[in-house]
Amino acid sequence: MDQALLSLLEEKEFAYITVKEICKRAGVNRSTFYLHYETVGVLLEESVEYMSNLFYEQFAGIDDVREKIVSGGKEDLHLATPAYLRPYLLFVQEHKRLYQTILKYPLLFQNDKRYQGLFEQIFDPILERFSVPQNERKYRMMFYLNGINAIVEQWLSEDCKDSIDEVVDIIQRCVLPLGY
Q1: Whole-prediction pTM value?
Q2: N or C: less crowded end of the chain, CB within 10 Å?
C-alpha cells in the first residue's frame, strides 16, 4: 500500500487521494486497508518512513559521516557540499510530489522529530567539534535547516526547473559551514 500511495502522490495532491483509490492501486480490499491503517494519514507516515530508508540508501557510497564527525578533520564536517547535496536533490527531484506533501503538512510528518534525530546524531557532534556554545546550537541548526529547506521548497514550487548543480551552487553560496 506504501507504493500505491506513493504512486498516487505522483499523480495528484495528497488531500484528494481516497482509500478507494489506494486499495484499487494496491489490489486489496478496503477491509484490508482498515485492518492495517486507521487513516490515509497513518499510511502516509509509514510511506514516508519507507521513503526515508530509500533516501538513506542514496548515501551508501559516500564515506561514513559519523566516522568523519569523530575522527576526520574539521574540513570533513561541512555537509553542504556537492557530495551530499547532489544525491539529496536528485532524490527530492525524483519524488517531488512526496516532498511537496511533506512541506505542505509538516505536523503530519512530525518533521520536528526527524530534525531532532539529525541534530542529535549528526549536527550536535559537529557543532561540538567547532566549540559552538551549547545554548547556541539549536538556533544555528534551525537557521541552517530552514535555509536549505526554503531553497528546496522554492525549487520544488518551480517544478525543479533549475538544474541540480545550479541549486547546489545556490545552497553553497547561502549556507556557511556549520561551525562558523
Answers
A1: 0.74
A2: C
